[in-house]
Amino acid sequence: MHATLCDLITDLVQNSFEANAAEVTLNVEETEKNLKVVIADNGKGMSAETLEKAKDPFYSDGLKHKHRKVGLGLPFLFQTSEMTGGTATIESEEGVGTTVTFNLDPANVDLPMFGNFSTAAATLMTYGFQGNLTIEHSKDGKSYSVSREELIEVLGDLNDLESLTLLKQFIEGNEEEING
Ligand SMILES: Nc1ncnc2c1ncn2[C@@H]1O[C@H](COP(=O)(O)OP(=O)(O)OP(=O)(O)O)[C@@H](O)[C@H]1O
Ligand SMILES: [Mg+2]
User: Is 156 helix (H, G, I), strand (E, B) or coil?
Assistant: First the structure.
């Protein structure tokens, strides 16, 4: 299960990776009144039928978990938004891609904790995904953006121990700037 919103975001971005997307973008926009998250990919997309099923907690495509046909990412999102008076939408077209958008009220007492965004971002950047991932994070008007392609250009292999340390420092530095 998801302990934090960052775990949920990680799970949803991993869905985009698993959909064989070439480009994935994660946009997180925080203000005092609203948390907006948009995850967009140009992966395989979903038919209307699959999309309906994907919202059901007792559905997973049966390919990934051989012994479990239950997916937790999207159902958890819908459950959380319903419980807290937020909104969540998925737009998807087969062969074109998928966009998941949600807005949540940061002040709602039933909202899970936000979690550690630096850790989530570093995990996603070093996930065994061959396409490009761009992460944009803004907080009360301050923002930064980082892409996997740029990081590879500067650091080389991101799974190399030294690169991993530098990558984490870079993201943490950006986070400190927008949180400060
Ligand atoms: N971005 C996406 N592009 C294409 N299909 C998607 C996308 N996100 C979800 N799906 C479809 O919806 C199903 C359910 O997704 P969900 O994240 O709930 O479960 P899962 O990925 O199968 O398993 P889990 O996330 O629990 O490991 C997926 O199996 C996949 O078929
Ligand atoms: Mg998933």
Answer: coil
